[in-house]
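Fold this sequence, please.
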Amino acid sequence: MAPLDNSKGVWKSGKGKGRKTPKGRQLEDQAHSEVLALLGDRPRNRDLLIEFLHLIQDAYGHLSAAHIRALAEEMRTGQAEIYEVASFYAHFDVVKEGETPPPALTIRVCDSLSCELAGAQQLQKALEDGLDASQVRVLRAPCMGRCDTAPVLEIGHNHIDHATVEKVQAAIAADDTHVHVPAYETLADYQADGGYAVLKDLRAGGDWEAVQAKIKEAGLRGLGGAGFPSGTKWGFVRANEGTRYLAVNGDEGEPGT
């Protein structure tokens, strides 16, 4: 980085030359104001980066270079770090200077094995041929975790099970592109109905050996290639004197998960 000549208050880039700004993409006032309005009084914590990216993506339909620069300013981090995160996830559209932003509506067709077997490729081709590409973008997307209702697609943020061209057209006509949160049992309701009671008793000093014995007796096995007996594996873990770690949902990309 060129040194700052304090006597003149300019950045020196060579003999007889100077500029008033550092190198790199400059902060744009309008983009900064827009990002400030979206973030509001939320803390600028690094673990909120993905949430902030969603706010910008949902508001403007893409992530412009100017917005990434403004977000970097607010989070006091590098633009490269924000770009790396944003470009990793399929739901973020990073638009560089001079590029045309994507259409307002995006359809993502799941390309997992279950959806492929249920005709996802043919569905994607039919959508590409039958929809106006200037208004709707059709993309392939990784597993959406709905293998039991294949083929599946996501139009905007609305998942459509057993998807067809007709269902997509109906959703577009009704502007039904927002997420649908199903009715679900809360943790409090589950616990009030006896949920986790056994776990609570075990943590209070219950007979864990009896539980492990029941698991072994039941013949429960893991679904990995080895089909290892779960009760035996539990015993190995408990016998370890060091720190124990539990990985949950290590991979959701295989059929049926």
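The chain has three domains: 4-95, 105-173, 187-239. The CA atoms of residues 42 and 48 lie 9 Å apart.
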